[in-house]
Amino acid sequence: LKNGDNQRFRSDFFKLHTNNQIDFFNMLNEPNRQLFYHLVRPEEFAPIFSKLEASEQKLIIEELEEKYALKTIEFLPTDEVVDFLSELPKEMSDYYLECMDVRESERIIVHLKYKQGTAGAIMTTEYVTVNPDETVGEVFRRLKIQGKDAETIYYVYVVEGDNRLVGVISLRELVVNDTDITMQSVMKDQIISVRTYTQQEVVIKIIKDYDLLALPVVTLENQLLGIITIDDIIDAYNEETDEDFGKMAAISGAIDLNVSAHSVIKIRLRPLIFLFVLGLIPAVIILSMPKFLEQIALTAIFIPLITGMAGNTGTQSLAVILRGLSKGKINKESFVKLLKRELLTAASVAVICGAVSAIIGYALAEKNILMGMIVGSSTAISLFICTMAGLFIPYAAYKMKMNLAIISGPFIAAISDIIAVIIYIAFICILL
Amino acid sequence: LKNGDNQRFRSDFFKLHTNNQIDFFNMLNEPNRQLFYHLVRPEEFAPIFSKLEASEQKLIIEELEEKYALKTIEFLPTDEVVDFLSELPKEMSDYYLECMDVRESERIIVHLKYKQGTAGAIMTTEYVTVNPDETVGEVFRRLKIQGKDAETIYYVYVVEGDNRLVGVISLRELVVNDTDITMQSVMKDQIISVRTYTQQEVVIKIIKDYDLLALPVVTLENQLLGIITIDDIIDAYNEETDEDFGKMAAISGAIDLNVSAHSVIKIRLRPLIFLFVLGLIPAVIILSMPKFLEQIALTAIFIPLITGMAGNTGTQSLAVILRGLSKGKINKESFVKLLKRELLTAASVAVICGAVSAIIGYALAEKNILMGMIVGSSTAISLFICTMAGLFIPYAAYKMKMNLAIISGPFIAAISDIIAVIIYIAFICILL
């Protein structure tokens, strides 16, 4: 397709929807991508670039000629430049900021200061404002010119003097009104707005509850700072759901498939260690009840600890893959990538938790070294196997087009219990 | 406020945003609502009615005069009538269908046939279509008239002859183009569309990936049947997330706070019984390994079973309240309502699972009646307490504005383990 006629490639390519352009772009190898950059101008590449995942953007920007890269960034909407730069190492983002137009870079620096997850961080500054005394006809003429750069023209914001927001009117209302009516008389003056520090989930709730397509962000004095559009919100909503899912499986911040193994290990270990301490409590209680300890033997007190830990790691990897499947992000390629990360994570977590439980086992079992080794090895091996079970069981069910409803956290926890008990018994029967 | 001037109430009330109107309406008691219906016309009540929860709609429709009720339904958009009727008992929805305009009711019957969760079930038929040879100016004049009834005017669909979809143009593109250009030349002819049977999650993914505000639903012959707008999708997306959350905690379909206790009990018991069988496996394995059974006593084999069950019920109630909190739906009032439902659910589940495990305990413990009683009672009591713990711990953390991140499924499972072990020990020490 690409070897031949350049002009023809361009005309064919730009007939495609941006999404298909991206699919096409993703299929290219490095030399073909370099050819692609020659054929496509930075302003045409910007919309494609802006839709790539953050991790891909980082790779692509490095292989671009610097001039081309800067031009591409220039053509991104402000909020996406902010997103992109906030993912880069500090020295790189500083460099790009220095190369930019001063006014633009100042605006971006202001944005970068807003905390992730607040309205300030997701708002855009490309919108259309009008004066209260302009007529519908004048506004339409203005939209014809400004409309190309604005992120949305479905709302027009009416501002006075000091950029103070006094009204809002939807494009829909503009269309149904006569051309000689002024903004003053058609605008809605009861404006729903948020502040830069408003939490993302509150923004989502407002946009959803009020069926808005965009929401203005204002200062205490009602000065318009930016707007949040519904497509930004859908992205944010996705993040929120990831968060909720992460919370449910004790791995907040590590649901996304692109998070590195290093971060994933850290994020997952923290709750596991905490849960390990909780899991010790039943053992300690049993130990402190001599009458009950008579009924069961020392070896039994470790059962809840080992099964509990195995269940937790299984649930963690389950949450990652279930969420990925439901977002439609799991295919063969991404599964292999995920599998590599999970193997590394499972191994690290198993070694660390195994070592900790060996020491605890040794201490609780009246300083019996053999018992410490048994508890440690059983924990390590069952954690590793159960992390893999949490990954493979749902993936296999999905591949076999089975109903995923039974593959729940408790289901994986129950399977993990079984695996952990078998491993523990095996060690005891062999070594004790 | 309401006793005085009716005219003044109306003018004040209609200045409010629909959402605040709903808040106001929800605060009214029955006699005040009757007064309200006298002051507000059905066509004005319809937008408020359409935003109520399905369970509230059912109650409200019964207290309306029949004529008023029918008028209200008439003024709802087709997709919302469908939603509403599909929630009613068959004889009631049939009755309303008979009272309606024949053409409208035929359209609704077609809709009701589409399976829940498919594009057909969420699409709307109120949209604007134009001919390929109309000019931008003509389309604007047409929007001025038709725009009021359409669910969205942000896309205009270009159809030929037999309602065959040949193009689509956004209002944004209409605005930036000159008034004498024909649709033929500005419309996009590469149309992204779905079929009536397309799954909701696929629709969501397309709308999200392509940043659309609406998506057409067409037949195999490309005839336009309806459109799905982004606000319908946000509702659907919410349902999908509920589903995902439900799957994670093994309670698909019972996340919503409005589901009745009866259904919740059924939905939750099924996985619990299944998980109970899985939970038995470690016990059976231990029993079948005489060498290991020597190491631990008979009483120990029930520990994984009881702690596992307790953890599962805790996770189930946790998922319901975490999801409710994250949707911003939990306040004091709704918590009390939820609490009542959960008390009933917990009690029923505890009695049933307790009875089952008493029998199993009796059978596994060499037909020891006392052991059966201990296992049964421990299971029942710990299931009940752990369901409540899954509800109260996150609610208390939320009330005390604590970080909810540590309140995860595994955390509640670990707490449940502790509770269950204590209860089991207590029974054994007292009775054995």
Tag the structure with descriptive keywords:
Tetracycline Repressor, domain 2; mainly alpha; about 425 residues; two-stranded antiparallel ribbon; about 65% helix; CBS-domain; homodimer; 3 domains; 3-stranded mixed beta sheet; 5 strands; 21 helices; MgtE N-terminal fold
Q: Could you characterize the architecture of this molecule?
A:
- The structure is a homodimer of 432-residue chains.
- Chain A is mainly alpha-helical and 432 residues long.
- Helices cover 66% and strands 6% of the residues of chain A.
- In chain A, the strands form two sheets. The first copy, chain A, has a three-stranded mixed β-sheet with strand order 1-2-3.
- Chain A has three domains: 6-113, MgtE N-terminal fold (Alpha Horseshoe); 129-236, CBS-domain (Roll), CATH 3.10.580.10; 249-431, SLC41 divalent cation transporters, integral membrane domain (Tetracycline Repressor, domain 2), CATH 1.10.357.20.
- Chains A and B meet through helix 11, helix 12, helix 14, helix 15 and helix 16 of A and helix 11, helix 12, helix 14, helix 15 and helix 16 of B.
Provide a concise account of the structure shown:
The structure is a homodimer of 432-residue chains. With 432 residues, chain A is mainly alpha-helical.
The averaged pLDDT of chain A comes out at 85
Which descriptor suits the 3D outline of chain A?
Answer: elongated
Alpha plus pi helix count of chain A: 21
Classify the beta-strand content of chain A into a percent band.
Answer: 5-15%
